[in-house]
Structure formats: structure tokens, C-alpha cells
Amino acid sequence: MLSPTKAALDQGASGPDAATPGDLPPPAPLTSEDCAVFLDFDGTLVEIAERPDAVEVAPGLAELVTALSTRLEGRLAIVTGRSIAALQDLLGPVEIALAGSHGGEFRPGAGCAVEPLAEPIPAEIISTLERFAAANGGLLVEPKPYSVAVHYRHHPEALEALLTCAQGLASAHSLALKHGKQVIELAMPGSDKGTAVARFMSLPAFAGRTPLFLGDDVTDEDAFRAVRGLGGIGVLVGAMRPTAAAARLPDVTAVHAWLKAGLNPEFQGKTQS
């Protein structure tokens, strides 16, 4: 059986940053022999909701990722923009590898302590954005340990002013500015998904394997480029757009089906999409 990397590349996904005008092939079926799997959360494992705390986690999702991590001998990690604490509030205390806050916090495996990969976001950055949000219709500010996000889904008219404010803060404090799906986020240096993937791939459990990263947002592009540099592929989830990914799945349901197909048939019957 072809590895997911080989299959996707053989079907024509190419280019330095893969701003592909046409569609991308789906990833080949997941095998346990040589892969390491990295999963975004929002928009990849769960549908994006109106508010970060309003997402619906499918029954059996925690069991699915835990079982797949076991099958891959620990070579599976969720790499999310959420804090690890916020992720576990939704998913439960899953015993797998995790990276939260876009990689600012890092848990190398089940039972391991969380390690910081960045400095905490300064309190004055959060308070400045909270004042801006209050003065612009009540935007939702989401503080995290190593970043802060401002959601403008319900106030798209505030985007231009929000970008100006965020760009000023990013320049003054040497922060990374990330523009995701109706959200602007400021993150401390070292807090990005590509850095987290590279860190995982340097660990003995992951080293030498073919990395795959599944994600839906432009904030996942750092990880797509990181896995490509390590001989793996990114898998874009959702509608086609310019991307460094080399394969695509259409939606969250397709992601669940692809993950389940990597497990034993008897487990597949016990989980629900």
C-alpha cells in the first residue's frame, strides 16, 4: 500500500508553496507502519461554532483519537490554537500528545508534563485588546497562555480597525499576527504550529516517520510547510484554496472517516461520526 505521502505526491500535488489552481487528491488510507499524524482541532476534528465554547464534540471522538494514538504507538498529536486546558474541557482528559496555543505549550506524550515553548502573553496586550473590543461593539476576546485571539464573526465591520490595532501591537511587542477564520490572533514568538510539529518530530517516538498534518485554516500553513520539509504532507480540510498542503479532505465528517479507516474494523463499529 502506498504511504499517504507517496500517494498524494504521485497524484500531482506540487509546487514550492502549492498555490494550486486545481483541486488536490485525498490522502491515501492511513497505515500504522511509518506515519506520524498531527491533527488541528477546530474545523478539522470539530465543526467551527459561533463561539469557541459552543463547539459540539462528536460522541466517540476522544476514544477515536486515543485508539489511533495507541495503534500508532504514540505518534499522534492534536496541535491546536486552543490552550491545552480549553481543549481538554471539551474533549476530556485524553492521554495523547498535545500542543496548545498554536504550539506555545507542548505535551510530548501521554502522562507527560506540559512544557512551555514560548513566554506568556503580556497582560497589557490582553487589556489593550479588551478595551478595543468593548469600544467596537463587544468583540469576543479569548486570552490564552501564549496568545490572545479576537473574534469578529458578529462584527465584520470592525475588521479594518482591529487589524490596525493588532498590527500596531505586533510591531511594538514583536508578536506574530495570525489571521484565521473571522479571528485575529497575536502570539508570542515560538508559538506556531510548525515549530510544534518540528519539536514532535525530533522526539524518538516520532523521528524518522512520515508526518501528516490535517488542518483547515491559514493558521495551519506553518505546519503544512513544516511537514513538507520533513518529507511529509499537509492535508487541507474544507474548500480548496491556495495552500502548502498536498492533499485535501472535504470536511470534518471525511476526517473522522479517514481516521476510523486507520483502525481495526471492530473499533470502527463502536464510534459515531
From TrEMBL:
It is an enzyme of class 3 (hydrolase). The keyword Iron does not apply. Gene3D superfamilies: HAD superfamily/HAD-like, Trehalose-6-phosphate phosphatase related protein, domain 2. Pathway: Glycan biosynthesis; trehalose biosynthesis. It catalyses: alpha,alpha-trehalose 6-phosphate + H2O = alpha,alpha-trehalose + phosphate. It holds the Pfam family Trehalose_PPase. CDD domains: HAD_TPP. Keywords: Hydrolase, Magnesium, Metal-binding. GO terms for molecular function: metal ion binding; trehalose-phosphatase activity. GO terms for biological process: trehalose biosynthetic process. Residues 1-29 are annotated as: Disordered. Its EC number is 3.1.3.12. Its cofactor is Mg(2+). Belongs to the trehalose phosphatase family. Removes the phosphate from trehalose 6-phosphate to produce free trehalose. This is Trehalose 6-phosphate phosphatase. It comes from Novosphingobium silvae. The gene is otsB.
